[in-house]
Design goal:
This protein has 247 residues and is an alpha/beta fold. The protein has helices at residues 50-57, 99-107, 118-129, 146-157, 176-192, 204-210, 227-231, 234-240, and strands spanning 10-21, 24-35, 39-43, 64-71, 76-78, 82-85, 164-168, 196-200, 213-217, 221-225. A hairpin with a 4-residue loop joins strand 4 and strand 5.
């Protein structure tokens, strides 16, 4: 079996996802084989169904089809663990909630209004350190920059380590240094944890640089493959003419 077909430690398949709202067909026959240790990027014009597809995968909207996750070591299907980083969250400036408070609320059953749990505090700080964000643990959520907030959200979404990580326009509103740092972290995640990652992006230059696989979506999958394969296709050129020059 060639490298492009190898699944490694696990294999995720999105099987025949369809979404219809009223009489309008939003997504049609979506089939995606997601390899572990790879970054799969979904691109498409506004209204192509990208966000709808993410919501269907997350089980947030009615749909037909399913997702199967196969543990290759045990050669059996298991329930998939999904991590998710949204495009944005509503954060009020000067809100008293700290990074520790928000993180602890996701991983602890004890209300965070009680005193800090020292063990949980250091557990969170250790996990934040994987993203270069340990210094932010006592900082107010409202005082974080866009890049800092995305690091924190990425840390929360990977505790515990998921089988599939979904990122919806994760660098929207972040400066170029923050974008570079974010993609380097994502690259490390897929390598260190053999993680499957789906990312939605409008920035085709970043897609070209970082994606292992690209999916061109317009209610159905028009083209999928390497960035070079998709960007050179007639389907891509019909929708993004003069947007990107592939070397």
């Amino acid at each position: 079996m060639g490298k492009e077909n190898a699944c490694g430690l696990h294999c995720t398949k999105i099987n025949n996802i369809n979404v219809t709202i009223g009489k309008q067909e939003i997504l049609k026959n979506i089939n995606i084989h997601i390899h572990c240790g790879e970054l799969t990027v979904i691109i498409g014009k506004n209204g192509a169904g990208k966000s709808t597809l993410l919501k269907a995968i997350l089980g947030e909207i009615p749909h037909t089809g399913d997702i199967t996750f196969l543990d290759m070591k045990e050669n059996k299907k298991k329930k998939i663990k999904i991590g998710y980083v949204p495009q944005s969250i509503n954060v009020e400036r000067h809100m008293p909630t700290t990074v520790y408070d928000m993180f602890a609320s996701y991983i602890c059953s004890t209300p965070v209004c009680f005193r800090k749990n020292k063990k949980v505090y250091y557990e969170i700080k250790k996990h934040l350190s994987l993203f270069g964000a340990e210094r932010l643990i006592d900082k107010g959520i409202g005082d974080l920059s866009g890049g800092e907030l995305q690091r924190v959200l990425l840390a929360i979404s990977t505790k515990p380590i998921p089988n599939l990580l979904i990122l919806d326009e994760p660098v929207s509103g972040i400066d170029m240094n923050g974008i570079k740092d974010f993609y380097e972290i994502v690259s490390n995640l897929k390598k260190e944890y053999d993680m499957s990652i789906i990312l939605v992006s409008h920035d085709l230059e970043l897609v070209k640089k970082y994606a292992d696989k690209v999916i061109l979506l317009d209610k159905e999958i028009l083209k999928q493959g390497t960035p070079e394969m998709v960007f050179s296709s007639a389907e891509f050129k019909a929708r993004f003419e003069n947007v990107l020059t592939v070397d």
